[in-house]
Design goal:
Elements lengths: L5 H5 L1 H8 L1 H39 L4 H6 L1 H30 L13 H32 L10 H22 L3 H8 L6 H5 L4 H38 L6 H4 L6 H4 L2 H32 L36 H7 L20 H7 L10 H8 L6 H11 L16
């Protein structure tokens, strides 16, 4: 199995971008289309509610009554936006994992089918489990923090440091151990969550290192991308309105109308944000997909970059060469048995004299190679019985033997 490298896994997303930039550009176009269409849909359905919500967040952040009054609007917004966001993210994340695993299908690995439905189900299960687990952990650690008030001041800092480290570990450790559930679900065609725990056994620290490097690179990617977007958007604002005031449309869109929402600065910002989002998607999904390929053996088996097993040498063949059968020839298995060397114990016994009444049994003990007209292969078969039957053959000869006082056998006696 190929060894796992945290550095290689962290950079696997960047390597994919270098190998298939066209695929990432298609995803970027889908990102831009989704963002613009969703914004236009929200402006059309609830533009006035969005304006009120935007005003509340900018001016009355500490007014609880105003926040409660906006709850119906927020609920409607979530009811529209969350299902669309879940469907879109499921399609895009499944496409990214599928492409990273080397699976083909669809345009830029984009599909809309059972795999995407499984991904959406996985997200919902993860959300439910995360919420329940977070509530339990916070409750238990809140109980554990209570005794700190009775500790002496010299011990309190140590206790709180240990408490904080344990709290972080309580969230980080299971998240890392279950992090391969996404590529497992895509690759195996079934929702996999806790199966990831067994696959990552003994690999926590390399995976944690890969994810840490990935987070650092994602941070750098987003910061650099936002700086470039701001520079280009500033140039567009100066070119269209002669002032930088239009840059506010990047962070605070105008929901009063579709025309105001689709301002030049807003459209340019959406088009520039899309490639950064697509690249961030691949970089974030890269470590888990790479880890799954290595831990499951997919790296050296089926999938992209698979290595075909070498052909087995001819000397390793165990089946005997076919023997042509004719009307006069014995079957190959009998021939092989007849040609097997007989052990020393199978030596032919001394010829003995036997009366005429014992002629029939004596013929069976006679050396068959003296028979005339018998095929050579057949005579050898009779002369050399199989090793397992030798003891019985010797006993049969001894049963029919007679004392030596009968004299030597007549050499002129015809053989049977």
């Amino acid at each position: 199995m190929t060894s796992f490298s945290a550095t290689d896994a962290a950079f696997s997303g960047f390597r994919f971008i270098g190998r298939r930039p066209g695929t990432v550009l298609v995803w970027a176009a889908v990102y831009a289309l989704y963002q613009l269409v969703l914004g236009g849909l929200l402006v059309t359905l609830m533009g006035d509610k969005l304006i009120q919500l935007q005003t509340l967040t900018e001016t009355n952040r500490t007014d609880p009554e105003a926040a409660l009054a906006m709850l119906p609007s927020v609920a409607l917004l979530l009811l529209i936006a969350l299902p669309l966001a879940l469907a879109f993210w499921s399609v895009m994340n499944t496409a990214a994992i599928r492409a990273l695993l080397g699976q083909r299908g669809g345009v830029a690995s984009l599909r809309l089918g059972r795999a995407e439905a499984r991904m959406a189900g996985l997200v919902l299960i993860w959300a439910a489990l995360s919420f329940g687990y977070a509530f339990l952990v916070i409750f238990l650690f809140a109980l554990a923090a209570a005794p700190a008030a009775n500790l002496i001041s010299a011990v309190k800092p140590i206790y709180y440091v240990a408490w904080t480290a344990a709290l972080i570990a309580a969230f980080v450790y299971p998240a890392v151990r279950l992090s391969l559930s996404t590529p497992m679900t895509v690759a195996e065609g079934r929702i996999r969550i806790f199966e990831s725990w067994g696959l990552t056994r003994g690999k926590f620290w390399p995976l944690l290192g890969a994810y840490f490097l990935c987070v650092v690179m994602l941070f750098v990617l987003v910061i650099v991308g936002m700086i470039l977007i701001a520079i280009v958007a500033a140039g567009a604002a100066l070119a269209t309105s002669g002032s930088l005031d239009a840059l506010s449309g990047m962070f605070s869109p105008d929901y009063s109308s579709l025309q105001a929402y689709f301002s030049p600065v807003r459209v340019i910002a959406a088009l520039l944000e899309a490639p950064v989002s697509a690249a961030a998607l691949v970089v974030a999904a890269g470590p888990s997909a790479e880890a799954y390929k290595i831990f499951s053996g997919l790296k050296n088996g089926a999938g992209e970059g698979a290595v075909e097993p070498a052909a087995e040498p001819a000397s390793y063949a165990m089946e005997p060469a076919p023997v042509a059968e004719t009307a006069d020839a014995e079957p190959w298995w009998k021939t092989a048995e007849a040609q097997a060397p007989a052990p020393e114990a199978a030596a032919e016994p001394e010829p003995v004299h036997e009366p005429e009444a014992a002629a029939a049994p004596h013929d069976e003990a006679e050396a068959p190679h003296e028979a005339q007209g018998e095929p050579a292969s057949h005579a050898e078969e009779i002369a050399a019985p199989a090793p397992e039957d030798h003891a019985g053959a010797v006993e049969a000869v001894e049963d029919h033997a007679v004392p030596d006082d009968h004299g030597p056998e007549d050499p002129h006696k015809p053989t049977h």
